[in-house]
Fold these 3 entries.
Entry 1:
Amino acid sequence: MGKRLNFIFLLIIVIICAFSASDYGSLSSSIDSGDTAWMLVASAFVLLMTPGLSFFYGGMINKKNIISTMLQSFIALGVVSVLWVLVGFSLAFGDSIGGIIGNPMTYFAFNHVGAEPNTDFSSTIPFLLFAIFQLKFAIITPALITGSFAGRIRFRSYILFMVLFSLLIYSPMAHMTWHPDGLFRNWGVLDFAGGTVVHMSAGFAALAGALFLGKRKSTFEHPANVPFVILGTGLLWFGWFGFNAGSALGANADAVIAFANTNIASATAMITWVFYERMLGRKMSAVGACIGGVVGLVAITPAAGFVNIGQSMFIGFVAAIISNWSIRLKNKSGIDDTLDVFPSHGVGGIVGMLLTAVFASEVGLIYGETTTFLYHLLALLITTVFCFGGSYLLFMIVNALLTMRVREDQEEVGLDMSQHGEQIE
């Protein structure tokens, strides 16, 4: 009976959505065709990031876990998309409940999410397009977490965790940060494209997962496929232009600024990483260059539309150095964050969040303003407690319902065979 529950649950969701969603209606004259065209493209860019992440992670893991690691990212495209339509979008962007979370009934099953703009979020694109663009962020966030426990988690347990994380951690973070009545937004906390909502929430959840699941039997391994890592980085970098420039919600000057800052911050972080490694007497590795590039992308995300080119270079440089130190510290600590998710995304997001408050035009520390920086510190404290503590609690709940860690013999043979019956030849 238990094996049928997943299918029955999905069937119920599909039936609910089929009979609940409203008609889209006709396009309003207020729709801007240029903004709409760009946001359609940006949404596709961001969707591509999740397959890119699967290659990035899959190339770093050992050969017997490549398929499982890639699928843990890829499956989020399906699971989170369905959740988002049912209730996730409403929890993130529905009528505010205390500035913390949205009313689940406001847009339940995408009711009232149609072709007309919603001026609370964007006045020039269809509200449906805004919802779909935001979906891509919700998809990649739980996928980012998977790198921390690659090689040792049961697949169905992970799916349950993803569902709970998306609804109970991601949606409140999105609401507090991006909803007009959200707690962080009303404090003046700046997060242009998801440094706090996506990367810090995923980073702290990853740290919680690594601590909860414990170390693998064998942590000595080399990347199975470095070309996969390079390919994944390229896809992530490409998709990130939609991630950051798309967050301007139109084809406008902010999108151009965010696009330029995204590229230069990542480029600076990449070369900083390899030159710093060389200064320490290590080789300039392809994997190092890729990690550096991704760290730069993470760090510029919250600041992308609020800083200039020179400041974005500084953010990329600082983030690369601090994340590099964080990886070394993590390795010494014995925490088995398999693919360094917290040092890259969590720490990179923290650096980006704080430097946003330093450099943000007119309200940053360099302009003599302290309010924004202090509220960023407070938001950082709340995010740390909520995302780390909440995720750890979710791991405990899921583990009580479905054992999360695979058996030792399954870990030994690899998750590709033990969880999916497939393997790389």
Entry 2:
Amino acid sequence: MNSSVDPCQNGLLSLDDALGRILGSLSPLEATEQVTLKQATGRIVAETLAAPFDLPPFTNSAMDGYALFSEGLRPGMGLSVIGKSMAGQPFEGRVKKGECVRIFTGAPLPEGADSVIMQEETLVTGNRLTLKRLPSKGENIRPAGGDVKKGEQLFTRGKRLNAADVGLLASLGHASITVFQRPRVGFFSTGDELRSLGKPLTPGAIYESNRYQLQSLLTALPVESTDLGQVPDRLEPLLQRLHEAGRNHDVILSTGGASVGEADLLEKALKRLGQLYLWKVAIKPGKPLLFGKLGKAWFFGLPGNPVSVHVTFSQIVRPALWKLAGASSFKPLRIQARCTHDLHKTPGRLEFQRGIVRVGENGEATVRGLAGQGSHQLKSLSQANCYIILPPESKGAKSGETVLVEPFTCLLTNDD
């Protein structure tokens, strides 16, 4: 990234421009490690994996019933039941015409059989079975390799492992997997007004909330996070904290001190110790965001207001951390939703309003904005399950109009 131009003298950057510059300057951390499957959920795959064998490894029954050879069967024909095949205890012989084998779900299909008829479609007397209908060839069987073929590529570098992925790996005998090491993230807050939880509030003081919010946001990512505490609004303590953090972390996050007031010292500190690449993004809330570098550590200076912290983390820091962690994709889910109430906005910046999105029985998504859209108002953020994204030129939206919505999670509750 070109740092010859002072970013503090430039105008506001659009979110796309700022994010493009940030992501363009980052490269995934290449260090890898082996983890067990029990440690693998949420981690990023660092190798291309192929299946070592077919899955399922043998043709088996999809039903409880009877395995038989379908050719030449006639309505009402009787068959001899010559044995049974159970999961883990296969029938050892061969099925011939006029014969069948009692079989259970998941059990290997006996040699000679080509179909399974459900037990409900048969009559059995002793060792004699009568068909209520004629099965077709291949009915109710799961062919070997029907799920995964030997040598088939399963995962490529950059895949984030979920529960189903871990199950698939286990079914193919993988006890461990090579993943990227997690970026080390240190975070702290600045501000003389902040008080630790449990301490009495003095006039003009507030309880610290940003570090707790950041810790919660970071737990959903494949990173190792360290709470570096609070720093007063003085340049020397800030310089010392940044210098120490830059030696031991891949990423440093701070909250507060990124604006233009007399006590907002991050710009000065970052210029003295490292490089400042960009400052101020045309979003609301979250405009005063800094990005730069301290030695080998990337630095993000987030605003001090708690909703601004949430917005800048979700829109800028999170995709940056995903890239550093080695993920191949890190775009959020965004959908169209119909407004149920008017939304108000002043043209100028891309705006992230808090809202509640619903999906009706007809599959239509609707959204309503919440009261309390100030960047200091955490209650509405706590109540919300999405951001309503309004473009810079927008003056809001009327009830019935369609807007872009970014759900916080894929789980939408019925809570109001």
Entry 3:
Amino acid sequence: MEVYEILKDLMEAPAVTGFEDQRRQRIIEYYKRFCDSVSVDVIGNVIGTLGDGDRSVMIAGHYDQIGFMVRYIDDKGYIHFSPVGGWDQRVVYGIRVKVWIGDGLDDYLIGVVGAKPAHLAEPKEREKVVELKDMRIDIGVGSREEAEKLGVKPGCPITPDSTLTRLGKGDGDLLVGPAFDDVCAVASMIKALELLDGEAPEGLKIHMVATVQEEIGLRGATVSGYNLKPWCAIACDVTHAVAPGVEAERVGGIELGKGPVIAIGANFTRPLWELMMKVAEERGIPYQREGIPGRSGTDAWTLQVVRGGTITGLISIPNRYMHTPNEVISLNDLENVARLMTETIKALPDSDLKHIVEVYRRS
């Protein structure tokens, strides 16, 4: 399977945090091709399990995405909305959106985020970013009753009306689309399952966990990490890359197309990040290093301390323009993330990680 096709398929199904059902079904179908068993827990995490060894390894990537939610419909039919997750409000005004009124892929209305045009704004207003509270979604109706007849209700999720495509011309490496954070990691996880060819290394039980509700507080990883109690956990997420206005020193020099990013810092277990680097070098997988002095803000943050603590690592995918309707990533990076996951899993049984916890007694 091509990673591009997996990613495109997953992104066609919306997954605003708390409304991940449509994308969940697609992930289940992919997992069923390669895993010995597939389960969904009470919060909506999809867990694909491979092997029956004594040591469990959890690979985690979240499939929920940031979006919006209908809060109120005014008398003129304009939708008042709130963000779900951390939006950059500078990029919201003027975008086209889908207001989801049902559970099918065609159950949406097209709308546009509107506000007072600059021509009509006071001079001081023009110098400020339009706040979300001053924006409305226009779906082309003239009253609340019309909107309600179309199925719009408080609580309906909303996503950008934007699709996955290649940046520039032809079959280039760079991809543009909404909410790569973090469904692109799940696409790499599915590719890694294919590379493992349905076999877990001897002595290991592999849990590929597509987590939910990361965007509002790492909730899915907290639940799945507690229930699975893995011996070793590797989270996969996106990280900021050099972009216009983003200096290299601000993001540690991370660039698109130069490979997966291996995280280093207190949130992670040193022998594991050293193993991933060794594997990458031996297998010819390009990689980058990122120093994270404290909280990573990813599933790794909760997995490190769940149920008494876990050997923890983080592989990141470079991303430009994160949390906007048009993020940019590298297809080669996704493919190399899948390779790094696969080769690290294969290297775990013979690594020093199994001796990482030691007990000393008085002699």
